Structures are given as C-alpha cells and as structure tokens.
Amino acid sequence: MDDELEILVTNDDGIDAPGIRAMADGLAAVGDVTVVAPADDQSAVGRRLSDEVTVEERSDGYAVSGTPADCVVAGFSELVPDPDLVVAGCNEGANLGAYVLGRSGTISAAVEAAFFGAPAIATSMYIPVGDGTLADVETTAADFAEPVRATRHLIEQSIAGGVFDEASYLNVNVPKDAGEGLPMDVTYPSTRYEMTAERDGTTITVEDRVWESMDPETIPDPPGTDRRSVAEGRISVSPLVAPHTTGSLDALESIAAAYPESDRR
C-alpha cells in the first residue's frame, strides 16, 4: 500500500473501552486513524440510528452520543472525509453465529460502512467467562494484542489481495489468551440458534443458551463454522456481504404474477 490509508475506527463498547484504544494505537502503523465512537456502551443495539446526536472532540477522537451506526454515518458525512476503511472493535466478547449479525453493534458498524461503499472489518475477542458474565471480566489494552495483530494482517493483505472485491466486510473473532501466531481460518457463520424464554408470572426471561458450552468436544457446530474455529483455538474470519442477498425467486415470481388477477376479498 503506497498511499496511507484513512481508517475510521469505531466500536460499540464505548470510546473509553480498552479494546478500541488498543485497536486505534495498533492500526496507526498501517494508516491514518481517526476514532469516532459512542460516548458510552452501545452493545447489541444493531443498526439503530438516532435523529440527532452530540459530538465531543477529544484528544483521542470523537465521542458521539449515539450508536455505532450513528458514528459511521457521522464519520463519513462530517468527521472523516472519505475513509478508505472502517474497523469496528475490538469488541469485548465474541460475535459468532448468523443470529448475531443483525444484533451486534460492532458488526452493524461494518454493515453501515458497506452502504457507503467502503470495506470494513469487525473484530471481536472471545472471552471465556465460566459461570460468570462478561461484566465480571476486566480487560486491559494488552489483552487485545492478538486481535489487533490479526486485524493489521488482514488490512495489509486483503485490500491489495482483492478480498473486498467479493466481500463487503470481514467478521473476525479471536480467542483470548491463546498466544501469538494462531492459525487463521476462513469460516462461515454457524446457523445454530438456541434462544429460549421462560415465563414467571408477568416476567419473561430471555436466555441465549448457545453459550452454555464452548467445549470443542461437545459443541455441535460443524467444521468450517466460526464457532467451531474459535472453540478449537483458531482465529475465525468470515467474509460477508451487505446488503443482504435475495433467495430463490422462482416460486415467488408466480405468486406475485397471480396477484392482480386474484379474487378480491
């Protein structure tokens, strides 16, 4: 890459999260980095947009009182003229499986970038929590060294290598504390879905049971999936396309063609 890349870095954990600080610092070696990130935690907001947000210009970037999608739109429109690439992350916690693609703020930032015609990388770190939750785990910028290293490698190789001629964005997931030099797999999102709900009077508790085990000996996710790759201690890279592609049209074509002549009810 002869010309320096203009890189917009965002996240959904908030501008003060250690993952985005590590990412911004690490990517300074491969481009001109501008951080445009939510002022506070916006995890799992998907592509939600705000009608109006405020922005605070800080020494470490722009803090936006909105969502990751707001940050990307504001970045392209006002704050970062013509970025060459958007990097979202590094997220604290994995974004694995097809069912999280529309839910994750991290991935949604990458999708938003695709509508601006820019390549994007969404990077997340899988953090085992045992019987606890992510809120029980404290991380520092040093914990994100391998996700940053993987993201740098993908930036340096993928743009010149033509990856983004086919893919709109890459969904990258890196195991925590697995050391440097992990193998990297090209994967597709697992289709396993285990959301459940339980009612107790007027309260319904929703639970994501897919995280109950990441034991590679017992999880049912097949080889080639993002979850299988991470569970076995490898970096998962899924090349994904936005906007969403259409399915088979043949059956629907005949149904649509019959509508104007159908009986009025």
Automatic annotation (TrEMBL):
Region of interest: Disordered: 214-242
Coiled coil: none
Subcellular location per the Swiss-Prot or TrEMBL entry: Cytoplasm
Positions contributing to a divalent metal cation binding: D12, D13, S43, N91
This protein's GO CC annotations: cytoplasm
One Pfam family of this chain: SurE
Major location category of this protein: cytoplasm
Cofactor(s) this protein cannot do without: a divalent metal cation
Leader sequence segment: none
Enzyme class: hydrolase
UniProt GO MF annotations: 5'-nucleotidase activity; metal ion binding; nucleotide binding
Domain of life assignment: Archaea
Function text: Nucleotidase that shows phosphatase activity on nucleoside 5'-monophosphates.
HAMAP family according to UniProt: SurE
UniProt protein name: 5'-nucleotidase SurE
Organism the protein comes from: Halovivax cerinus
Taxonomic lineage: Archaea, Methanobacteriati, Methanobacteriota, Stenosarchaea group, Halobacteria
Gene this chain is encoded by: surE
